Amino acid sequence: MLFVLPAASxxxxxxxxxxxxxxxxxxxxVTARKAAELVGVNKNTxxxxxxxxxxxxxxxxxxxxxxxxxxxxxxxxxxGQRKGKRGRGAAGKxxxxxxxxxxxxxxxxxxxxxQTATLFPIIREQVKPDSIFCSYDVLDVREFSHFSFAETSxxxxxxxxFCRTTKPY
Length: 169
Description:
Residues 66-159 form the ISXO2-like transposase domain. By secondary structure, the chain is α+β, with helices and mostly antiparallel strands.
Protein backbone atom coordinates (compact mmCIF):
# COMPACT_ATOMS: atom_id res chain seq x y z
CA MET A 1 0.00 0.00 0.00
CA LEU A 2 1.38 3.40 -0.93
CA PHE A 3 -0.24 5.66 1.62
CA VAL A 4 -3.73 6.87 2.38
CA LEU A 5 -4.94 10.33 1.58
CA PRO A 6 -6.91 11.84 4.47
CA ALA A 7 -10.63 11.79 3.80
CA ALA A 8 -10.93 15.48 4.69
CA SER A 9 -8.69 16.52 1.78
CA UNK A 10 -11.05 15.11 -0.83
CA UNK A 11 -14.77 15.67 -1.31
CA UNK A 12 -14.99 12.30 -3.08
CA UNK A 13 -15.62 9.36 -0.72
CA UNK A 14 -14.11 6.83 -3.13
CA UNK A 15 -10.39 7.26 -2.44
CA UNK A 16 -9.45 4.11 -4.35
CA UNK A 17 -10.76 5.68 -7.55
CA UNK A 18 -8.72 8.82 -6.86
CA UNK A 19 -5.61 6.72 -6.23
CA UNK A 20 -6.17 4.81 -9.46
CA UNK A 21 -6.72 7.97 -11.51
CA UNK A 22 -3.65 9.70 -10.05
CA UNK A 23 -1.46 6.67 -10.78
CA UNK A 24 -2.87 6.49 -14.31
CA UNK A 25 -2.10 10.17 -14.92
CA UNK A 26 1.36 9.81 -13.36
CA UNK A 27 2.20 6.98 -15.76
CA UNK A 28 0.83 9.02 -18.67
CA UNK A 29 3.27 11.83 -17.81
CA VAL A 30 0.68 14.42 -16.84
CA THR A 31 1.88 17.16 -14.49
CA ALA A 32 0.65 17.14 -10.90
CA ARG A 33 -1.19 20.42 -11.42
CA LYS A 34 -3.08 19.11 -14.46
CA ALA A 35 -3.78 15.79 -12.68
CA ALA A 36 -5.24 17.69 -9.73
CA GLU A 37 -7.61 19.53 -12.07
CA LEU A 38 -8.68 16.33 -13.83
CA VAL A 39 -9.22 14.30 -10.66
CA GLY A 40 -10.65 17.12 -8.56
CA VAL A 41 -8.13 17.24 -5.71
CA ASN A 42 -5.91 20.01 -4.41
CA LYS A 43 -2.75 20.59 -6.47
CA ASN A 44 -0.61 20.04 -3.35
CA THR A 45 -2.27 16.65 -2.81
CA UNK A 46 -1.47 15.58 -6.37
CA UNK A 47 2.10 16.89 -6.08
CA UNK A 48 2.57 15.01 -2.80
CA UNK A 49 1.17 11.82 -4.34
CA UNK A 50 3.43 12.12 -7.41
CA UNK A 51 6.42 12.72 -5.13
CA UNK A 52 5.60 9.57 -3.14
CA UNK A 53 5.25 7.56 -6.37
CA UNK A 54 8.69 8.74 -7.54
CA UNK A 55 10.16 7.82 -4.16
CA UNK A 56 8.68 4.31 -4.35
CA UNK A 57 10.02 3.83 -7.88
CA UNK A 58 13.47 4.94 -6.71
CA UNK A 59 13.45 2.65 -3.67
CA UNK A 60 12.40 -0.39 -5.70
CA UNK A 61 14.61 0.17 -8.73
CA UNK A 62 17.58 -2.11 -9.45
CA UNK A 63 20.07 0.78 -9.18
CA UNK A 64 20.79 -0.25 -5.58
CA UNK A 65 22.18 -3.63 -6.66
CA UNK A 66 25.94 -4.00 -6.96
CA UNK A 67 27.67 -4.82 -10.24
CA UNK A 68 28.86 -8.40 -10.73
CA UNK A 69 30.34 -10.45 -13.54
CA UNK A 70 32.45 -8.55 -16.05
CA UNK A 71 32.67 -4.86 -15.16
CA UNK A 72 34.56 -2.18 -17.11
CA UNK A 73 35.76 1.13 -15.65
CA UNK A 74 36.90 4.31 -17.34
CA UNK A 75 36.88 8.05 -16.89
CA UNK A 76 36.17 10.86 -19.28
CA UNK A 77 36.44 14.64 -19.21
CA UNK A 78 33.64 16.96 -20.28
CA UNK A 79 33.73 20.66 -20.97
CA GLY A 80 34.42 23.12 -23.73
CA GLN A 81 37.71 23.14 -25.61
CA ARG A 82 40.22 25.73 -24.52
CA LYS A 83 42.55 27.25 -27.08
CA GLY A 84 45.96 25.64 -26.95
CA LYS A 85 44.91 23.02 -24.38
CA ARG A 86 44.36 19.35 -25.11
CA GLY A 87 43.42 16.20 -23.24
CA ARG A 88 42.91 15.95 -19.53
CA GLY A 89 45.25 18.87 -18.79
CA ALA A 90 42.71 21.41 -19.95
CA ALA A 91 41.49 23.41 -16.96
CA GLY A 92 37.81 23.67 -16.24
CA LYS A 93 36.81 20.23 -17.48
CA UNK A 94 34.64 17.96 -15.34
CA UNK A 95 35.86 14.41 -14.69
CA UNK A 96 33.23 11.66 -14.90
CA UNK A 97 33.98 8.11 -13.74
CA UNK A 98 31.89 5.28 -15.12
CA UNK A 99 31.33 1.58 -14.53
CA UNK A 100 29.76 -0.65 -17.16
CA UNK A 101 28.49 -4.16 -16.62
CA UNK A 102 28.97 -5.95 -19.90
CA UNK A 103 25.56 -6.29 -21.57
CA UNK A 104 24.00 -4.56 -18.59
CA UNK A 105 23.65 -1.36 -16.64
CA UNK A 106 25.88 1.70 -16.38
CA UNK A 107 26.84 3.75 -13.33
CA UNK A 108 28.40 7.21 -13.70
CA UNK A 109 29.44 9.81 -11.16
CA UNK A 110 31.26 13.12 -11.37
CA UNK A 111 34.51 13.08 -9.41
CA UNK A 112 36.85 15.87 -8.30
CA UNK A 113 39.86 13.96 -9.67
CA UNK A 114 40.71 10.55 -11.11
CA GLN A 115 43.21 9.44 -8.51
CA THR A 116 42.98 5.96 -7.02
CA ALA A 117 42.07 7.37 -3.60
CA THR A 118 38.97 8.91 -5.15
CA LEU A 119 37.95 6.06 -7.47
CA PHE A 120 38.59 3.02 -5.31
CA PRO A 121 35.84 3.74 -2.72
CA ILE A 122 33.37 4.05 -5.61
CA ILE A 123 34.50 0.71 -7.01
CA ARG A 124 34.22 -0.96 -3.59
CA GLU A 125 30.72 0.42 -3.14
CA GLN A 126 29.43 -0.54 -6.59
CA VAL A 127 31.26 -3.76 -7.59
CA LYS A 128 30.77 -7.13 -5.88
CA PRO A 129 33.85 -9.04 -4.74
CA ASP A 130 35.05 -11.73 -7.16
CA SER A 131 33.85 -9.79 -10.19
CA ILE A 132 36.03 -9.54 -13.28
CA PHE A 133 37.12 -5.91 -13.42
CA CYS A 134 38.53 -4.37 -16.61
CA SER A 135 40.23 -1.00 -16.36
CA TYR A 136 42.84 1.20 -17.94
CA ASP A 137 46.47 0.92 -16.85
CA VAL A 138 46.56 4.17 -14.83
CA LEU A 139 44.32 2.92 -12.00
CA ASP A 140 46.39 1.63 -9.07
CA VAL A 141 45.05 -1.86 -8.45
CA ARG A 142 47.10 -3.25 -5.58
CA GLU A 143 43.91 -4.51 -3.92
CA PHE A 144 42.99 -6.67 -6.92
CA SER A 145 44.04 -10.23 -7.66
CA HIS A 146 45.71 -10.20 -11.06
CA PHE A 147 45.42 -12.52 -14.01
CA SER A 148 48.00 -12.47 -16.77
CA PHE A 149 46.87 -11.96 -20.33
CA ALA A 150 48.83 -11.39 -23.50
CA GLU A 151 48.88 -7.60 -23.79
CA THR A 152 48.63 -7.71 -27.55
CA SER A 153 45.15 -9.23 -27.33
CA UNK A 154 43.97 -6.19 -25.35
CA UNK A 155 45.98 -3.53 -27.17
CA UNK A 156 44.44 -1.05 -29.58
CA UNK A 157 46.41 1.96 -30.83
CA UNK A 158 48.85 1.73 -27.88
CA UNK A 159 45.97 1.80 -25.36
CA UNK A 160 46.15 -1.19 -23.02
CA UNK A 161 43.26 -2.60 -21.02
CA PHE A 162 43.90 -5.01 -18.17
CA CYS A 163 41.37 -7.38 -16.61
CA ARG A 164 41.54 -8.19 -12.93
CA THR A 165 39.40 -10.00 -10.38
CA THR A 166 38.47 -8.15 -7.21
CA LYS A 167 39.43 -9.65 -3.86
CA PRO A 168 36.73 -10.36 -1.29
CA TYR A 169 36.68 -7.43 1.11
